Amino acid sequence: MMKQDRPLLQVHGLNIEFHDVLVPETVVYDFEMDLYPGEIVGIVGESGSGKSMCALAIAGLLRRHDMQKKGEILFAGQDLLTCPRSVLRQFQGNDIAIVFQEPMSSLNPVKRVGWQVEESLRIHTRLSKEQRYEKTIQMLDDVELADPKRVYRQYPHELSGGMRQRVMLAAAMICEPQILIADEPTTALDVTVQSQIMELLKRINREKNTAILFISHDLSLVARLCERVLVMQGGYVRESGPVEDIFHRPQEEYTKKLIAAIPTIPTMPTVTLS
User: Fold this and answer.
1) From CA 101, how far away is CA 95, in angstroms rounded?
2) HSE (CB half, 13 Å, CA atoms) of 48?
3) What's the pLDDT score for residue 18?
């Protein structure tokens, strides 16, 4: 991907502090990141490192009470931390979309799949019911769901975990956002389906030129998908750079430990038959 001159998203000096505890607790310190059009950037770190907090802040999903947020998240000339809620809602689902780890907790169990995938179209467009239906069927097909017309009529509990995650990707991409935030989107899936979702994210990026922010605790997944990576620990970015540099020339001890912890398949000895 050829990096354009102007970032699509800029995060400067992001600090997040919770105030719903006896002693205020800072969970993100001085987070900095640029995201360019069509780029795939990974944020990796163990649980509690602050990576998902950064993703939620960018998506505008953090509460504005019980916590203090400092810094800037700049998108389309607006600071997403301080802009009016009405402006933020225009971006959410339309320009910036998010997919979470467990789709069953994100999908409404009593609403049919099609109705839920169409939600952003109802909010952000003036399409007719028939136009929304056609666009939704096309999107369900685009995320490689077999028989999309049948899936449209089904409820979430009637689908497998991998199918539900594809539905969530369809819902996120229905308005063709400029940024897709994928927060641990494959953690709850088996290895085969995980690989399929990773390939689907690559295809979305390639065909739609969608910038993807990929959040994970798994460095091996980040290496397969991302161009740049930020390594977080304890709310701080410990190291950042091109994936090639981070994997082959890590500077921080924490990054070296993460890389060393990546499982490897031992090479089977060669057996020569005489």
Assistant:
1) 20
2) 2
3) 87
For 181, the 3-state DSSP assignment is strand
How far apart CA 183 and CA 213 sit, in angstroms, is 8
Token pair of 168 as six digits:
């969530």
Give pLDDT < 50 ranges for the chain: 2, 274
Q: What is the pLDDT of residue 106?
A: 86
Q: Which long-range contacts does 132-135 make (Cβ < 8 Å, 24+ apart)?
A: 135/174
pLDDT score at 274: 46
Output the pLDDT for position 4: 58
- Rounded to whole angstroms, the Cα distance separating 197 from 191 reads 10
239's CB contacts (< 8 A; 6+ apart) are 230, 231, 246, 250, 251, 252, 254, 255
Query: How far apart (Å, rounded) are the C-alpha atoms in residues 81 and 56?
Result: 11
Strand-pair partners of 16? 28, 69
CB 54 within 8 A of CB 25: no
How far apart, in whole angstroms, are the C-alpha atoms of residue 220 and residue 259? 8
pTM comes to 0.91
CA distance 208 to 199: 14
Task: From 147, 162, 180, select the one nearest 38 (Cα to Cα).
Answer: 180
Q: Which residues contact 214 (CB under 8 A, 6 or more apart)?
A: 40, 41, 42, 43, 182, 185, 201, 221, 222, 225, 226
Two tokens, residue 190: 């088996």
